Amino acid sequence: MNGVHKAIKSFFSGKVYSVHSLVLEEPDKQVVRRWRKEVDPLPPRMASVIARSAGKNYIMTVDVESGEITQHDATHISGFPLVTLEEMLSAIYAPFSNADFNRTILARGVDLADVACLPFSPGWFGKAEDGRRLVKLECFSRKDTANFYMRPIEGLIIVTDLDTLQVLEIVDRGKHIPIPKAEGTDYRLDVENGPIIKLPNPVSMEQPGGPNFVIEDEHLVKWANWEFHLKPDPRAGVVISRARVSDPKSGVMRDVMYQGFASELFVPYMDPEEAWYFKTYMDAGEYGFGLQALALEPLNDCPRNAEYMDAVFAASDGTPFVRSNMVCIFERYAGDAAWRHTEIPITEQLIREARPKISLVVRMVASLANYDYVVDWEFHADGLIHVKVSLTGIVIVKGTTYVNMNQVNQNEDLYGTLLSENIVGVVHDHFVNFYLDMDVDGSDNSFVNVHLQREYTDGKFPRKSFMKVNKTVAKTEKEAQIKMKLTDPSEYHVVNPNKMSRVGNPAGYKVVAAGTAASLLDPDDAPQRRSAFTNNQIWVTPYNKSERWSGGLFAYQSHGEDTLQVWSDRDRAIENKDIVLWYTLGFHHVPCQEDYPIMPAVSSGFDLKPVNFFSRNPVLRIAPYVENELPVCKAAASA
Amino acid sequence: MNGVHKAIKSFFSGKVYSVHSLVLEEPDKQVVRRWRKEVDPLPPRMASVIARSAGKNYIMTVDVESGEITQHDATHISGFPLVTLEEMLSAIYAPFSNADFNRTILARGVDLADVACLPFSPGWFGKAEDGRRLVKLECFSRKDTANFYMRPIEGLIIVTDLDTLQVLEIVDRGKHIPIPKAEGTDYRLDVENGPIIKLPNPVSMEQPGGPNFVIEDEHLVKWANWEFHLKPDPRAGVVISRARVSDPKSGVMRDVMYQGFASELFVPYMDPEEAWYFKTYMDAGEYGFGLQALALEPLNDCPRNAEYMDAVFAASDGTPFVRSNMVCIFERYAGDAAWRHTEIPITEQLIREARPKISLVVRMVASLANYDYVVDWEFHADGLIHVKVSLTGIVIVKGTTYVNMNQVNQNEDLYGTLLSENIVGVVHDHFVNFYLDMDVDGSDNSFVNVHLQREYTDGKFPRKSFMKVNKTVAKTEKEAQIKMKLTDPSEYHVVNPNKMSRVGNPAGYKVVAAGTAASLLDPDDAPQRRSAFTNNQIWVTPYNKSERWSGGLFAYQSHGEDTLQVWSDRDRAIENKDIVLWYTLGFHHVPCQEDYPIMPAVSSGFDLKPVNFFSRNPVLRIAPYVENELPVCKAAASA
């Protein structure tokens, strides 16, 4: 991609510029679907580039071979591209050149050498944020702890121009609030913080014979009946493409999903006051969910049998850099059965059959300042794809004068939980929206609402009522804007109406929600308009190459006119078309003491599950584990 | 318990009787809570016995030492005790002595030697089921397959008196429906049914140093920071008692749950027609969720590092028998992190800390004829208890004349999915209701609805809205009858209002639902009245020793007057009392081809999660895995 770097440099001919995104452009889907490996030449490789120069956004396509640049209109949408790592690194020093800032820090009795300021996106509320690219810095005391997040200098917000690094405004409201203590906040193993708990005999996931998967051409993962393309992406984290599963009957590889990735996040904090109201993060579009994914820790982030994949991303000058060990891939056996049955003794047949449940996990962790998001794509041998998001890391907290709840007036809202002396864990939500371009047995699919409803028998039978299945094919997008209800349930199927099974059911996959959450913000509130993808749990749109980022291409300070809600409200036809399903996974988080000083992981996810896709249980013939085929292990001498 | 057996025999003095339940009677809770091991003598051991003789139900308490019997009133509630294994074994032969039965089987061209009939509970619909103890038998062809469930002799129901084994009525509606083919239905490994799929390098859970748990006094499990009493139970499956967790700060064992178990199941099928309407099973009360739990299959039901526990149950003559390997216990590491954080590079600190997530799983599998329910109680080192139910085994199917959906009229309701030629998988639900006697830091607790609601800022701040937490303590039972709503969410806490943390929060545990389902039957429909525990996802009652079985003590043919709904509607005080929380886990099941001929496991569950119970993250100081402490493994020579 060195040619691309040169082409960009020459395009800006000596002017200062920054590259905010440089990735391979998605080739046309039809080209990819038609392309045959080892037969057809590679489609032309193009780079998709987002850059800024002299206060303007640029969207460009660069031909990787020729360096030819095509410029696209970037003025029709509000907002800015994600903030680069280099900009963040510069912004954190901006406050220290401001005399007022230094004065207020000293007035609080804090040594400037102990202060760390972090850049946070300002959101967009239609006033001060207009026209200027801003960052709001918040500062912490690093004294006596690595976990400075637990030592906020509360109420102090340094509004800074990201382009000029000029401090524009200092909000300074919390002078009376003490900085919480450092004691007990550090989470590092080698810091004195209580005795270490260790179980004498470790239980481990072992696969001494090596993995059963291969990675061809650096990105094509083949495991058991699955194959898919795996690519780190600076914005989405990882992108799974062309996931296909073999039919156990014919051995033919069948399309399941053309592409799947985390499209956007929304993390609104629920404190409306001056220093907190703007905290309504869109982490993929504002910071880069992949850019913020760092190296994984072998043995603890991923099990011993994991293999690792590096990412190559572009720095803000357009040159590549390597993010090593960003993704891990491992086979999992967690002690569960894929299926089992014991025949009852009354039939005089002693039958006891059980098969191990084995899966392949692809994992990355994005560390967005304090928070860590673990994202797993788990491929099961029975054709199911489980997507799991685990939240861990550090809860962002608010300083308070209180050290005990008995000091708090009953009517006072702390907007959170008193976690420790002078520390409130502020209530917030996490939403992760997934782009799921399902191609079930081919690209033209339909979305079916398999509604379960009470039906009355009207005295014809001893039963008064039963649950009836009523299937409705969504004709247009609005019919597929789904708000889930426990008492008015449906299954949600993506089917191929052109591919019928032997007994006449359309091949399908269903999206199965586990626990999730819906946004409680007012639909007209600016943050909610910008992250309107949280208005529904499920959406279906016709495939459109330009509709990838559900919170908008330029999420930073966006106004909300380039979102999934806006696209979907066009109400285009989606029946028997190439369609994309969007699923929003949500978490409400009311912090509790256990989240202090670092929170135990909380997980939820969803399944993409075959439904009448296979003619029978696809793991019916999977082999059971037998003793003499399992690894031969002994305890480590040092254990 | 031999003395008990003799006492019962002598009580019935020569009359024919059957023992339907014989378990140790729960000692008074206050006695148990006060009892100190190695100091106090054991409380008097009493047996709780349910028996039948001459068409009457008996409830008795038998003193294990003296054999003295106290008889309790058994006439005030409808229904019958669970059907014994011996009765089931007898009932299956009843049809064969009936000439009409033999005639209709032969008329269908089926060899009587190939026929297996299974006994199903008849439900209660207020007519034919009154006054008589009934069973409805349904028959299958066993020819050429072990999976006879896939070969129903459709529409044939043999209504039989369970007490006399007399055939009362033969419903014979399905003569025109062929018996589905045997081909492809067998699930056994050693039966020719397609090639076996085997990944060359097994991934295994290994713990060569042996477990980190001990089992004292045969039932007291101690692992990491947890201890609890584990007991197989013929009705509930397993009962967890006195679950306590140590405080990482003080080392003191703190109460979490006095007792937890699966109290009742409800599995209504959604076909209202003659041969199907009554299929509304209450598996714990009708069959015994523990009685139907058979031996587990090592390496495949449970991982290699599992240990096993036997059950001792009473046969219908009152004598004990051993159910070996009914429960397995193992430590799990599934490759996930308990918590992790990477510090962002902009702070110039390279910090990457992750800790393995380790848990202890207690598992049993109940095989209720066709279906297998895997129930896991999983204790996590961070204080969380995860209860998981996995559904697998065989979907019960209905014979049909159809071989392809193109033969089915658009308006015709099959009440299910055509799974294969002549086979419909009938739509149904599964509900499992859990009894959770929470004793959070002592027995007197309150139930708090931590409601999350939209709040408007009324122009005071740039944000229009935010999510506010509003806590309400439930004063009486009706305030704790909870129907969950995604768009009107709450957290549900059980707190000890008398035990405040250092910063003044009450010690608590919350119940966290994952995916669940609500019953769609009419509340006045007889099956729904009997299993009215499905009317809400959560209930809270004051502790009452007699209120253990949410579908009634005598669930079989019960009328629904002895249920959780009835108890809860008394609306007793529950604030700062010894309370019991009931959680109903639900699944809607619309079968699909992948469920044929045996279904891949589908799981869901719920968490009991500490909330302000610990003063900080209780696994903060858990050790990471390091290479030289993990097992030393090599691949098996035969792999």
From TrEMBL, chains A, B:
As recorded in UniProt, its EC number(s) are 1.4.3.-
Cofactor(s) the protein needs: Cu cation
Q: Where is the Copper amine oxidase N2-terminal domain?
A: 13-73
Matching entries from Pfam families are given as: Cu_amine_oxid (PF01179), Cu_amine_oxidN2 (PF02727), Cu_amine_oxidN3 (PF02728)
> What are the alphabetically sorted keywords of the record?
Copper, Disulfide bond, Metal-binding, Oxidoreductase, TPQ
Molecular functions per Gene Ontology? copper ion binding; primary methylamine oxidase activity; quinone binding
Annotated active site residues, numbered on this chain, are D283 (proton acceptor), Y371 (schiff-base intermediate with substrate)
- Using the UniProt record, name the top-level EC class of this enzyme in a single word: oxidoreductase
Q: Which Gene3D superfamilies match?
A: 3.10.450.40, Copper amine oxidase, catalytic domain
Q: How is it modified after translation?
A: Topaquinone (TPQ) is generated by copper-dependent autoxidation of a specific tyrosyl residue.
PROSITE patterns registered for this protein in UniProt: COPPER_AMINE_OXID_1, COPPER_AMINE_OXID_2
Q: Which residues carry this modification: 2',4',5'-topaquinone?
A: Y371
Residue ranges annotated for the Copper amine oxidase N3-terminal domain, each copy included: 81-180
Protein family (similarity comment): Belongs to the copper/topaquinone oxidase family.
**Protein name as catalogued:** Amine oxidase
